[in-house]
Amino acid sequence: LLLTVIGSLAPSTICRNRYKLAIVRSVRRTAMAPLFPVDFADNMVGDVMTSIAKPLEDVPAAVCYLLSHHPQEEELVQSFI
């Protein structure tokens, strides 16, 4: 949700503000599904949001790995295992 809001605030020459606003509204309706009627596009947005949740779990570990000292010291590897 936060990335959607940040992306909608970023200036762009390709994606006009009305399209960004439509995406934000669709994400809002999807997140608050019991309170709003959901159409097919909102269903697709919800599907994308649930599909992206699992890969996003790996982002913090990847950032830590990429920012750590290489090659790893033996004692750090043993303490991790």
What does this structure look like?
With 81 residues, this protein is an all-alpha fold. It is built from five helices and no strands. It starts with a helix and ends with a helix. The mean pLDDT is 82.
Keywords:
single chain; 81 residues; mainly alpha; 5 helices; 0% strand; elongated
Largest sheet: none
Secondary structure category: mainly alpha
Helix content: 55-70%
Radius of gyration: 19 Å
Total helices: the number is 5
Brief characterization of the structure:
This protein is an all-alpha fold. The model has no long low-confidence stretch (mean pLDDT 82). The longest helix is centred in the middle third of the chain and has 17 residues, at 40-56.
Topology, please?
Layout: H1 2-9, H2 17-31, H3 40-56, H4 59-67, H5 74-80
